[in-house]
Every structure is written in C-alpha cells, then in structure tokens.
Amino acid sequence: MSAIVAGTAAPTPTAGRRPRGGLWRAVLHNRKAMLGAVLLTLFCLLAAFPHLFVPWLERDPRAIGDMPLQHPSSEHWLGTTGLGQDVYAQLVYSTRESLIIAVVAGLGATILSVLIGVSAAYLGGVADNVLSMFTDVFLVLPTFPLIIVLATYAGKGNLTVIIIVLIVTGWSYGARQMRSQALSLRNRDFLESARVRGERRSYIIVVEVLPTMTSLIVANFLGAALYSVLTAAGLQFLGLGDPNSLSWGTMLYWAQNQGALVNGLPAWALSPGLAVALLGVSFALLNYAFDEISNPALRPVRRRRARSH
Fold it and tell me: What DSSP string describes 77-144?
C-alpha cells in the first residue's frame, strides 16, 4: 500500500514532451551550435555595422587610391588592390551582400522545399506523383552548369537574378527530405484527430504538421544557405556577378584578374576565400548541431564522470 501511495505522490512527467525552452537549452549545450552561432553573429555584426570595424575609412571602399599593390602594413592591414583600394575595408564591407545572398536564397529555397515536399506527402495520389516527379527532375539535373547558363542568359551581373537562380536550383533536395518526414507523420493520431474535427487541409499542414518538423526545416535552411554562399562566390569568381559590387566572390574575381599571387599579395586572394569558408563553416556547424538535436541517435556519447561517494 505504501508503494502505491509513493508512486502516486510523485508522478513522472509525460514521456516525449520537451519542457518549454528545451530547444534553446539544447543549442546552448551543443558545442557545434555555439561555435556556429558565435561565427554567424560576428558576420551579422560585420554586415550591419561595417563602419565600426573600419573607423578610419572616410570614403567608399571601392574608391580608387594612390597606393596600388601595397603589402600588408599598419596602414593597410591586408594590403591594397591594383587600384589602390584597401583590401581589409573591402573584405568587411563585402560581408553584407554575401550574407544577404545566403539568407534570402536559403530562405526562398526552404519555403519552396516545404511547400512542395509537405504538400506532396499530405495530399498523396496524383498530386504526390506529379510533385515527386517534378522534384526528381531537378534532382538529376547537373546543377552548376545549369546555374551558369541561367545566370549568363537571364541577367549577368544582376544580384536578384543570381538569388532567383540559387532558389530554383537549390530546393529539390530539401523537398525530398520534407516529403519523407511528412509521410512518416501522415497517419499519426493527432492528424487523424484534426481530420475528424473537420479541420481544413491548410490548417492541418500549417498548425499540426509543420511545428513537428521545426528542426528539419531549420537544418534545411542552414544547408540551403551554405549552398547559396559557396555557389554565389563561385559564380562571382567566374565573372557572372556585378564586377562593381562589394562581395567576397567579386574580390576573388579581381584578385585573380589583377594577379594578386603573381604580385606577391596572397592576403588579397586568400582573405575573401577564408571569409567564404568561415561563413560556410558557421552554417555547417549549426546544421550538424540541429541534426543532432532533432535525432538523438546522432548525438555523441559523453562519458559521465564518476561521482564521489
């Protein structure tokens, strides 16, 4: 009898229900997520307030200077370009466009992935077959050559065109993931209850299905943003972007055209490439972290310290 009373006096919490703020606490306790968040925060600060990191610059960083091809010094930390422009100032001011490309293109590709993938899984039948076939067509297309063709003929140098091209070519893999996840949820009890209540399909998808896929959606966005950063830098390096814009890919383009390595200025060529790599690392770390948070099987096993008795 005492065992029964003790069992009822201290009820266990409902299994599978995460306490409020559980996702945020999981991020705080994940080293990959924290490192990725710190790097991404730094890039956001550079993009939002570039003048704070180059307080001595009183002109447009694209303005032609009178000291071309200077080596790194106390006056020019990363040297100058062939037109006398400060490389460090251009690196800082280029963060904004590169980050805008990553966020806007990643967000657009994620929205398209969610719309097509979740709709295909929930609607089923002919709609599923048509949308899945549409997704498969984009999955098998050679992506980078298609991007080059579209960026060249749709509007060379136009930032909006580059973003649209990245969205069009970057949604299909995420849509396949969304469809698979939504199919696993399609016959769950809470969705059956919503159907019995007479809820509309749009309500069920937005209110019932999507909140259970939050971690996957976030991971999909981070992966799409990473793809957008690297692909946009590649396009701009090939000269398919606006050569007068301030972005890391354009810096690489001019460093190659003006012979940065030949003139003994490796900082001019390597610094924008390192910036692209670090921004990509921040997205990749956050992506891996959200994969671990959403899938306990991927979490590393941590050894527990022996407690002293």
Answer: TT-B-TTS-BHHHHHHHTHHHHHHHHHHHHHHHHHHHHHHHHHHHHH-HHHHHHHHHHHHHHHHS-HH
